[in-house]
Amino acid sequence: MNWLKLETLSDYNNMVASSNEEGYFAVAVFKHSTRCPVSMMAKLKMSTTWDIDENKLPLYYLDLIKYREISNQIAADFDVQHESPQLLVIKNNKCVYHASHGSISVSKVKEVLEIKD
Known about the structure:
About 35% of the residues lie in helices and about 20% in strands. The chain has helices at about 10-20, 35-50, 70-80, 105-115; strands at about 5, 25-30, 60-65, 85-90, 95-100. It has a 5-stranded mixed beta sheet, with helices on both faces. The chain has one domain: Glutaredoxin (3-Layer(aba) Sandwich), CATH 3.40.30.
């Protein structure tokens, strides 16, 4: 799994802009707390179950302890309450899926984006 890091607001803006690019289903961002065991388990689950082509759905990783400003920006821009762990899927500048904790589901992402196995 190739996690793309979100470390600056410029990275974030580029990620959102790429949600409009032809050839992508969307972009996804996993918000992770490095201090939370639940978040660590969710990250492990994502790493072992993610089977979506990353060339079609790039997967970004946000260390929200280190980069809380970006997490706050995501919450404000997409009107989604901040949670951790949390997965958001952005398509055409809109959040089309978000889930947190045990509700994070690769199969649900596929369903929302109409990705066939």
